[in-house]
Amino acid sequence: MEKGYSVSNELPPGYSPDFDFHIFSKPEHLALQSAEWLHFYLLRKNNQKVMAQVSFHISDYTARSPFRAPFGSFLFSPRLSPSVLYEFVQRCEKGLRALNVTTVSIVEPPLYYRVSGEMLHTIFINLGYRIALAELSSGIRIDRIRFDEKVEIWERRKLKQAKTKGVLFKMLPSSELDHVYSLILKCKEQRGHSLNMTLSELRATVEAFPGDFLLSGAYLEKELIAASVAIRVHPEILYNFYSGHLKKVDSISPMVTIIAGLYRYCEHQNIKLLDLGTSALHGQPNFSLLEFKLRLGATPSMKLTFEKQLSQ
Question: Is 28 left (phi over 0), alpha (psi -120 to 50) or beta?
Answer without folding.
Answer: alpha
